[in-house]
Amino acid sequence: MTDFQPAGLDRIELLKSLTPEERVALSRQCSWRHFHAQEQIVDRSSESRDVCFIVEGRVRVVNYSLSGREITFDDIEAGGYLGELSAIDGEPRSASIVALTETQVAFMSPRLFLETATQHPAVALLVMRRLARIVRSATGRIMDLSTLGANNRVHAELLRLAKPDLRPDNTAEITPVPIHNDIASRVSTTRETVARVFSDLARDGILERRGNHLVILDFRKLENMVEGVRGD
Amino acid sequence: MTDFQPAGLDRIELLKSLTPEERVALSRQCSWRHFHAQEQIVDRSSESRDVCFIVEGRVRVVNYSLSGREITFDDIEAGGYLGELSAIDGEPRSASIVALTETQVAFMSPRLFLETATQHPAVALLVMRRLARIVRSATGRIMDLSTLGANNRVHAELLRLAKPDLRPDNTAEITPVPIHNDIASRVSTTRETVARVFSDLARDGILERRGNHLVILDFRKLENMVEGVRGD
User: Which of B132, B228, B142 is nearest to A92 (CA)?
Assistant: First the structure.
């Protein structure tokens, strides 16, 4: 319990509608732990159904095929939470959670999480919104896996990463340069395919690496490459 | 309003924890409509964010690629509901809804749905459970699309359909015989692939059509065919 932070849950977006006193009371009922980068926070095969509140740091939710092939899902920043699926339905973990940086986690029991999430309408709404966002993203991924080839899935992932930075001059930067293996995991292909697609795009003047940035030189053209195929 | 049924929502599983009086009050605030088989209940491109309670009949949630290729998702029976994603996040519909039989629907506004779902803890929990189930099923589908070939996805879908009927003698029946096109939509392949896989399985003594039933003669063997590949 040396990691216990009475006001630690104040940083958690889900609980912002509670009073500071309510959050302190919840904090006392959580288990607090610190993790180093690359340390496993929750193993997929573990029996725990606790919800993890990320108080400091950044974590990655990773799903594996039976053979151990990594199929990445999502990165969660400080202020977020994860692991609610098992708390809600009592079923086994669907994924493992790994620390990407030094990370402080508050573990909350399923009983306490469900009590908190259903007794406070504002919290209930946020839990539903997050689940809805996960459903939307999974549905989009199913559509892409069903209708796009591997090359175009890499294109679609680049568009997704670059979109927040899209500028009026039709360029966008991705910082830092994404790791080939991460993209490969996210779109269910191999690292080699990602490397090949990157060098094809560079040759065609659509993509350029500049130090720590990956620059999309022609966002619309890349978008059209994906849309053209999605419409096939 | 000729279709209005004061006690119609009594059949809705989500609302069973409310009092009969609370359900009648909600019923009065819904719009009630009757649909014939094959009639469109909600168009994907519609502006409506209403939640649909299926009071009588059966409906299908259908997603399409831009080109109009059908990618089926789910069938919902009387007592169920759907369309809550748009009510929760205010985003456009992710799918269309079509009546499979004569169907009675009560449409509830997003505002009233969210009020009901967040003010009643038992209702909130059921909404979260349903979303969690959708996430689990989508995640499983992403894993299958990422790791299995089309043939094995047809096998996996047959296992899913047959599992509820699995008997001690290692056989199982699917009734009625599934339509090739429906399976093709669900696992993102073509009708021709489904037909070919069925005839391969029949030749190998794993599958047999008997009138209105499709009989899995060796469930374990079919299971091993999928597990063997999932583990690759």
Answer: B132
Kindly tell me if the per-residue pLDDT of A224 is higher than 80: yes
C-alpha B135/C-alpha A134 separation (Å) is 7
What single DSSP character describes residue B44? Answer: T
Q: A67 contacts in B (CB within 8 Å)?
A: 147, 230-232
CA distance A182 to A70: 9
Q: Is the confidence at residue B232, as pLDDT, over 50?
A: no
In angstroms, the CA A188 to CA B188 distance is 15
Do both B224 and B122 map to the same domain? no
Q: Which of B145, B180, B202 corresponds to the end of one domain?
A: B145
Say yes or no: A68 and A166 in one domain: no
Calculate how close chain A gets to B10, using CA atoms only, in Å. Answer: 22
pLDDT at A232: 39
Give the pLDDT band (50/70/90) at residue B1: very low
List the single range of A58-72, A105-119, B25-39 with lowest mean pLDDT: A58-72
Domain co-membership, A164 together with A217: yes
Chain A hits for B122, Cβ within 8 Å: 118
The secondary structure of chain A as a DSSP string is -TT--TTGGGG-GGGTTS-HHHHHHHHHHSEEEEE-TT-EEE-TT-----EEEEEESEEEEEEE-TT--EEEEEEEETT-EE-HHHHHH-PPPSSEEEESSSEEEEEE-HHHHHHHHHHSHHHHHHHHHHHHHHHHHHHHHHHHHHH--HHHHHHHHHHHHHGGG--TTS-EEESSPPPHHHHHHHTTS-HHHHHHHHHHHHHTTSEEEETTEEEES-HHHHHHHHHHHHT-
pLDDT tier for residue A5 given thresholds of 50, 70 and 90: confident
CA distance B220 to chain A (A): 18
pLDDT of residue A67: 55
Give the chain B residue whose CA is nearest to the CA of A115: B121
Q: Which residue of B has its CA nearest to A153?
A: B146
Mean pLDDT (chain A, rounded): 89
Domain boundary among A115, A130, A145: A145
Q: Domain total for chain B?
A: 2
How does pLDDT run across A31-56, given as a tens digit for each residue?
A: 999 999 999 999 877 888 999 999 99
Which whole number is the average pLDDT over A93-117? 94
Q: How far is CA B183 from CA A105, B171, B191, in A?
A: 43, 20, 8
